Amino acid sequence: MSSVDLVLVLRYRKAVTYGFHVLLGALEEHETTTSYEVVLAETPEATTTAIEAGLNRAKRVLVLWSFYSPDAEALAAELTTIKAAAPGALHVAGGVHATAEPVQTLDAGWDVAAIGEGETTLLKLVDAGGDPVGVTGLAYRDAAGKVVKTGRPERLPLDTFRGFSLRWHRFNALEITRGCAFSCRFCQTPFMFSARFRHRSVENVRWHVDEMRARGLRDVRFITPTALSYGSQDESPNLDAVEELLATCKEGIGPDGRVFFGSFPSEIRPEHVTREALQLVKKYCSNNNIIVGAQSGSDRVLDAAKRGHGVEEVMRAARLGVEEGFRINVDMIFGMPGEDQADVDASLNLAKELADLGARIHAHTFMPLPGTPWRDAPPGDVDPETIRAVDRLSQQGALYGHWQRQREHAARLAAAAEAYPRPGRSRTLLPIHSTPE
Ligand code: SF4
Questions:
Q1: Mutate to test the pocket of ligand 1, among 68, 177, 184 (most ligand atoms within 8 A of CB)
Q2: Is pLDDT of 376 > 60?
């Protein structure tokens, strides 16, 4: 068996494939003197096997993990099992949770936390033969146990790296925008990727679409924080840029192909929904549904969350969408910080009005996510009467989502935040309606 400098084992889970595909896309174009192999491990058992095999033929084995905050605890348990079964590898955690809570991540058992966007960090790690010391974008403990942070890697234009991997045949919805100029207080996106938009150029998107078509792939979907912000540098949509994007994608994927925009896995802000925008979607795209972010039925809560739109815009967007023949899915979050009974009632009323219009509610429970201004807010709680009302909507088929499970995630995240207090922050001192930074 030939030996290599480095084996990269990707703990490849369905929930995080996209992040890994982007890393693989960056890796496949990178020239390095390090000889390396990549193994995709889809289960804990496969990860253990890959580590053992890797240690037999490589100087170093890096196991790359990526996860969201709600999954951190479960994956820490998995990590413990894998480390016990196959010691000797270096476990590197990336993603938004590791970025926001590097010390928590190290304390949970990972050897290294990757901070910020992973592409350049991975390439430098590979160049260094897998040795993390001094590589920008990492946090780890030195020999004395002191946490060393090497700073955030540079945020590069989106065109710098491929959005999926040709070499490893890993395709996914294409990321067309990273970062978000809106700064909703419950959201990790602006923290992770900055509070400004970086858009993939139309030419670069077209290259990806052409490559997909050449491989027989027919569906083009997009990853973006707010679909109609494509091409914009501020809070208003740029419909010319959106049309250019959709037209070239439609042309590129060909007559048998389909383009989806403003539907899974992205959404549209309600104030961006206009008849003109919807007609663009109808002209170029195959989706018969759109997802609109509403989050609350209370203007007071929307203000506190810095959403930048009100309830009226949500209803207007839903009515317009229905008039233009779309099925409407509306994202809502229950248990937002500082909600009182009037706010809860307003959200339930909005949900019912939307359901009467034929919309479906995608329900979430508020989670105090690391890195966000509301990291130290109390976990989302939903009172029994609200649960019954939400359940009724669910039984009618008007509501779906993992909001019940998210109540448990929220409680766990709050406990973790309490165990790792931020200097000067305290849950009991958090003035929800004056909303701190
Ligand atoms: S919730 Fe959406 S619009 Fe608000 S900051 Fe996050 S990505 Fe941007």
A1: 184
A2: yes
CB-ligand 1 contact for 184 (6 Å cutoff): yes
Residue range 54-62: mean pLDDT, rounded: 97
Average pLDDT value over all residues in the chain: 94
Superfamily covering domain 162-419: tm_1862 like domain (3.80.30.20)
Q: What is the mean pLDDT of residues 68-85?
A: 97
> Among 96, 183, 189, which residue has the most ligand 1 atoms within 8 Å of its CB, making it the best to mutate?
189
Q: pLDDT value at position 427? A: 53
Q: Identify the band that residue 1 occupies on the pLDDT scale cut at 50, 70 and 90.
A: low
Instruction: CATH 3.80.30.20 in the chain: give the residue spans.
Output: 162-419
SS (H, E, C) the chain: CCCEEEEEEEECCHHHHHHHHHHHHHHHCCCCCCCEEEEEECCHHHHHHHHHHHHHHEEEEEEEEECCHHHHHHHHHHHHHHHHHCCCCEEEEECHHHHHCHHHHHHCCCCEEECCCCHHHHHHHHHCCCCCCCCCCEEEECCCCCEEECCCCCCCCHHHCCCCECCCCECCCEECEECCCCCCCCCCHHHHHCCCCEECCHHHHHHHHHHHHHCCCCEECEECCCHHHCCCCCCCCCHHHHHHHHHHHHHHHCCCCEECCCCCCCCECHHHCCHHHHHHHHHHCCCCEEEEEEECCCHHHHHHCCCCCCHHHHHHHHHHHHHCCCEEEEEEEECCCCCCHHHHHHHHHHHHHHHHCCCEEEEEECCCCCCCCCCCCCCCCCCHHHHHHHHHHHHCCCEECCHHHHHHHHHHHHHHHHHCCCCCCCHHHCCHHHCCC
- Among residues of the chain, what percentage have pLDDT more than 90? 89
Mean per-residue pLDDT, 166-178: 97
C-beta 189 within 6 A of ligand 1: yes
Q: Is the pLDDT of residue 279 over 80?
A: yes
pLDDT at 425: 62
C-beta 180 within 6 A of ligand 1: yes
- CATH fold group of domain 4-149: Rossmann fold (3.40.50)
